[in-house]
Design a protein that fits this description.
Layout lengths: L28 H11 L3 H5 L13 H13 L5 H10 L1 H7 L6 H10 L4 H14 L8 E9 L7 E3 H24 L7 H7 L2 H38 L12 H35 L13 H19 L7 E3 L6 E5 L2 E12 L5 E7 L8 H14 L9 E3 L6 H4 L5 E3 L4 H11 L17 H10 L1 H7 L2 H15 L10 H21 L11
Parallel strand pairs: 1-7, 7-8
Antiparallel strand pairs: 1-5, 2-3, 4-5, 5-6
Helix pairs in contact: 1-3, 1-5, 3-19, 4-5, 4-6, 7-19, 8-9, 8-10, 10-11, 11-12
Length: 522
Amino acid sequence: MAFHYVRAQRDQVLLLPVCMADWLEEGHLAWFVIDVVGQLDTRALHARHRNDGAGRPAYDPDMMLALLLYAYANGMRSSRRMEAACRTDAAFRVISAGLVPDHATFARFVVDHEAAMEGLFVSGLRLCAAAGLVDLSTVAIDGTKMAANASLRANHSIEWVHAAVGALMAATVASEEAEAASPGAACDPMSAAEIRGAGARLARLKAAQAQIEAEDAAAAEARAGRDHTAAREAQAGRRVRGRKPAEAHAALARAEADVAAARAKAQARAQRRAARQAAAQAAGRRLGGFAPGPDRNLAQAEAALGKARQAAAKATPTPRRQANVTDADSRIMKTRRGFIQGYNAQAAVDANQIVVAQMVSQDANDVALLAPMLKILEDSITAGAISDAVRKILADAGYWSDDNARLEGDLLIATLKDWKQRKAAREAGTTTGEPTTGEPPADASTLEAMEHRLRTAEGAAAYAKRSSTVAPVFGNHKANRNFPGFRRRGLSAVRAEWAFMNLSHNMGKLFDHWTPGSLSLA
């Protein structure tokens, strides 16, 4: 019995020429990407190419950018996978019109146009603004730790780096001498493997060495400044203000300075009493009052010095400063799942989850990054030709400080973690559970004033939008598109990669509102 099927006729010769436009439906993402690239300002991509006809022609930068955007939109960053997709994937073949750039071409394109990525991000932001997607009524700022293309085990001390540099230089010299002695002779395969890529490894080792030396110099300069301040205050009989150092030997130096200050103050007090006593004797009268007893401040400072000496004697040696020899710009970052070697990636996200500003930092803590992010946000809005003003800025407790709370703008910064903030709001509210009303008290501190604003109905409602505004953007990067970290190495490289990630995210938001032929900056 014969079955009735629609069978694949693989040996059927096509009777008409193939039209690639028929391969994809009208609303396909590939057509959107082509439209987007046609509207982006790509002059920086073309500027580095010759226009005199000399040399082999390069692939059209607009086509390469469209391929990259489509790849990132589908969670693909591997240049080899992109090359393979240009051979087998209909959408890639439509974008490239059947051309197949090899993986090295994709990789070189990303490296060569690193400096243009920030401009492309701003150009994409202008497209979103022209489409009416940018809503600056609330902007949430947050950071996420992104893994570097390096291992925690690649952190080494300056002594290890010096030894590695010496060994690499010696291996290179030995190989060159052997080649000079017997040109054309087969070299030792182990030696060849050892020095393969020696230039790149040597550059990374020297970068790590420079980082350690710079950090040591900065630490020495800061220590010298603290010692000078302590000595000056001690001579004046004043104790050094501020929090005592946690490190045992630094705490010992502070305790010694405190004793010197207390002793100088006690001596000055004794000299003043002796002068008064001499004046009284010259006047033929007796100096009144009780004779001074032991100086309590000096006794307390000496007791603290004794404890500091004991702690310094028991303290373990200060760990040697280290740097990562794979990516010297990366830093050890703490996350909820443990420590990673990575970077702190920052984003400012508007009410429609459009990324309006972004940056990458080496700081593990967010508190010093709020002011730079506000400046970058202002610059992005200006460069993106966005006329609206930011009305409210939301930030979590990682950004809290008195100085940040005084920055210009309507800032709502949590003073505690979210769950602690909600608990404090319930405990500080009225017995009926009603929110705080009115302005903060006139004598309230910066912290108390911010907590008062967060407990008001308006402040609580605004801050409640923070996590649902910015967290989905990071979730989209890491979970949906599988971008848990960076592929490239070096601060400038990962900044370009982060800018392109956020550009592709914004274009994904724009795609949801796109109809063919609707994109225009006019």
